[in-house]
Specification:
Two copies of one chain form a homodimer.
Chain A lengths: L1 H31 L6 H20 L1 H9 L7 H17 L3 H24 L2 H26 L3 H9 L5 H27 L13 H15 L6 E5 L5 E4 L2 E6 L6 H19 L16 H16 L2 H14 L11 H7 L17 H17 L7 H13 L25 H20 L2 H6 L5 H10 L9 H9 L6 H12 L3
Helix pairs in contact in A: 1-2, 1-3, 5-6, 6-7, 8-20, 9-10, 10-11, 11-16, 12-13, 14-15, 16-20
GO biological process, one term (chains A, B): proteolysis
EC number (chains A, B): 3.4.17.19
Catalytic activity (chains A, B): Release of a C-terminal amino acid with broad specificity, except for -Pro
């Protein structure tokens, strides 16, 4: 009974989905609400639920049902079945003791990383990071064998199903070739006009929060199915029908928090736009981290850091913070120039749109070489710093500002970094297609009407969930395969005065 | 290998404990943080984790291990094993379809209750409440058969392990006999002095919250392992090492929220004082709802609504809210009289210390008769109102102010009400014993030093967790079996001027 087998599978996966929703709330709470003394107990609860999901997913009955299940070709059911098989292979290929070893190594290394980063002491991180890398390579090998992928592709596939190194390498090679000239051109172009003068604060946090909410709602965030809160590191989390974003506020700079809120709102709109009928099933989840990042960067980089957006937002911001109408710092032009300023720096999360890919390229080159074994971990700082120097012309003064800055590697998230820049590329391509498809989309942005844009994204991206691969979603949405054309045109146009 | 069997059991129960911690946070979040649109999804997640706990607890391996497991008589291990057996019997005795039917009936009835209460329409509640009562009686019969208890005792045992109707009946009969005279005496006694004049507000919520936190910390609440937040109905929830209490604020009355915070702090101190080494095991949990309520009422009724407490608190409160030093409304005497005012009313949760037991007596008589089948549900309003009239002399004008006011019955919590008054009785007995044991305890209260009191409670109650029965804990702590002597003396002394 292949149809019954499929139906039984949906029941098991719905159960996993509901536990994952619980985990989403527990994870959010950990970063937003939890008192410090509960860290150990919370880690135990989260680990217990993770293991339960793993047990349900790898139980013998799932393999039997997957063997027998069938669904009509081309249907959502068929896509769901394919995602079930992918999830099963990712989970079942990893022996329980490796799951455990990976999780423990990552916990130990994250702890060590907090101290090592503070002290800028890479040597102190080396033993635990070495263990994480070893377990990551073990994981990559067993997953790769099960999925028919190279080890690094198996890691990538965890975050961005279907994306392979063969897709990324040519794109990143092109960027590596063009980026130094682009950065130089952008800086030269910007040097021709005076530096923007920023409005002077303080900008009280309650007002910043109020503006953040207003922008979220304008972009289409449904406050009945989500929240905005504060955490040390901004993120989008939560659960189905309960998408929670966070930001952090500085009272002398409202733009950082606002752009952060808009970025996370892009992620949240994707989650809120996933098809309700498939919400507990694998096919109903967001397609992958590249497409996810394309949604956040579309809202932040393509929309909010644009001149038309600032034409609408500048007077609202000025009024909200009580700025003088005559103060040129509050003009749309000045705010636009402030949020598009190009300045090479050491810290990835503070990087502007033009220099950001340099940070990703270096990390991608490092992690592929580390996973391949062509770079030894002890040589990472030197290689990392050389990479930054080559692309940004900066001399990294210490590892705190270098290879110790990100939590990804210590926490075991290898294969994640390239999705940031793949997302930026897709964001540009999607924005270009949307603008061409409906003139109401660009004209709406300048008037604070984002409904046409959201409608287009709902139809072409959000509602597709994981029914197609990322390239097929892009092809269907834009009429073309994923390419860097729109991205490069966008950067040249915005930063180098190209038409 | 009886010792191995016991160890294996602790592993299974630790897993359940960790899922229960997750449920504690999800439940807190539902009432404090969750956006409205997530209600259905959250209910699914909570139900899924509840079912998982039930599956783990009733798996065949647990019965086998319980058959074989042994632990040294009198040890914590032996008490743990006994609690495991009790938990197993409570869970395994109920067939899965009855668990499901009960849960669905309660969900439907809770929904119907919200509307029925608003409209004061008992007839509208009757069908779903009838279903809840039927399923409750089914549950009581099967649990009673497994535990060797009468149906109502089986319900009681869910909330207050070991407490039986035979323990409650004589205590409540005594109260029923004495209460009307006590209420009359208290009112006559209070009528001899002018009514207290309350300080006039508004009392800004942030200041109320600040005072609430200050009092919590003074009483010994560990903010590193807990939180204070706002919810529609105050409660104490959360998880191990993460005890979360809530309150609600009215800006024209700070005393209600403050007394609420102190009440929930009493619950929270019990949870925070449970033995860390046993935190994931059944024996490491709070003993039962009577003892739990004794801890909240000890802090609220015995301590905070006392004159010595107000000697300490009144100047702090006056200063916090900017009251004038000369304003007699801010005197310790006035505030003390305000928080001990006796006034019969319709609503249980608003009742004073003297009339509160009347509300419980009526509910206890109703629910025992309904479970026994000697009262028909359609006759509940009339019987309820007759009960209130008999004890408080009030004529209930509508069911909103009568039998529709509480969520307990609609939600399936039958057998819970008596624990409120049993808790009040134990609170008085424990307070009396503590004051006798160490003169630093009463003298500390008048100076805002609650450490001696908390130390005594930690030693004699909190650290005992579920190692002994409630009566045995009381006996060990106070040197006497549970009795109403201290409670009646306390009420006579505080409210009737008896020495």
């Amino acid at each position: 009974m292949p149809q019954h087998a499929y139906t039984d599978l949906t029941t098991h996966f719905a159960r996993i989905g509901r536990i994952r929703n619980a985990l989403g709330i527990l994870g959010w709470d950990k970063d937003v609400m939890m008192p410090a003394g509960a860290a150990e107990s919370r880690a135990d609860s989260i680990a217990t639920l993770d293991v339960l999901c793993h047990e349900i997913l790898t139980a013998p009955v799932i393999a039997e049902l997957l063997d027998r299940a069938e669904a009509p070709a081309g249907s959502w059911q068929a896509a769901n079945l394919q995602e079930m098989r992918r999830a099963y292979l990712h989970a079942a290929s990893v022996p329980a003791d490796l799951v455990d070893a990976m999780s423990r190594a990552a916990s130990r290394c994250e702890m060590a990383w907090r101290a090592a980063r503070r002290e800028g002491d890479f040597a102190a991180l080396l033993p635990t990071l070495s263990e994480v890398l070893d377990r990551t390579r073990d994981l990559a090998v067993v997953k790769g064998a099960a999925l028919g992928l190279s080890p690094y592709d198996a890691l990538l596939d965890q975050y961005d199903p279907g994306t392979r190194r063969a897709d990324i390498d040519p794109v990143f090679a092109e960027l590596r070739r063009d980026l130094p000239a682009l950065i130089a051109d952008a800086q030269a172009h910007q040097a021709a006009t005076p530096a923007p003068v920023l409005p002077t604060g303080p900008f009280p946090v309650p007002l910043q929060e109020q503006m953040g909410r207003r922008m979220m709602m304008a972009l289409g965030f449904d406050m009945e199915r989500g929240r905005l809160d504060v955490s040390a590191h901004p993120f989008c989390g939560g659960a189905e029908d309960d998408v929670r974003i966070t930001t952090r506020y500085e009272d002398d700079d409202f733009l950082a928090a606002l752009m952060g809120v808009i970025h996370e709102t892009g992620h949240a709109l994707y989650e809120q736009g996933l098809p309700h009928d498939w919400r507990t099933q694998p096919v109903g989840q967001a397609r992958g981290m590249s497409l996810h990042e394309s949604q956040s960067l579309l809202m932040e980089m393509q929309v909010a850091r644009s001149r038309p957006f600032m034409d609408w937002a500048a007077p609202l911001l000025r009024a909200a913070f009580g700025g003088a109408e005559a103060d040129p710092a509050w003009s749309a032009d000045s705010l636009y120039r402030a949020v598009t300023r190009v300045r090479p720096g050491f810290i990835r999360v503070d990087a502007d749109e033009v220099t950001y890919p340099a940070h990703v390229l270096v990390r991608y080159e490092m992690e592929t070489a580390l996973v391949d074994g062509t770079l030894a971990l002890r040589d990472l700082p030197e290689a990392f710093n050389a990479g930054i120097h080559g692309l940004l012309g900066l001399t990294v003064p210490n590892d705190r500002l270098g290879c110790l800055q990100d939590i990804h590697w210590p926490s075991g998230a290898w294969g994640y970094f390239p999705t940031y820049t793949m997302g930026a590329i897709l964001a540009a391509q999607l924005r270009q297609a949307a603008f061409r498809a409906d003139p109401a989309i660009p004209s709406g942005i300048a008037q604070g009407d984002f409904a046409p844009l959201l409608g287009w994204l709902r139809t072409h991206v959000h509602s597709q969930a994981s029914r197609l691969s990322t390239p097929d979603i892009i092809r269907a949405a834009t009429g073309a395969a994923p390419s860097t054309d729109a991205y490069r045109a966008h950067l040249r146009e915005r930063y180098c005065g190209a038409e």
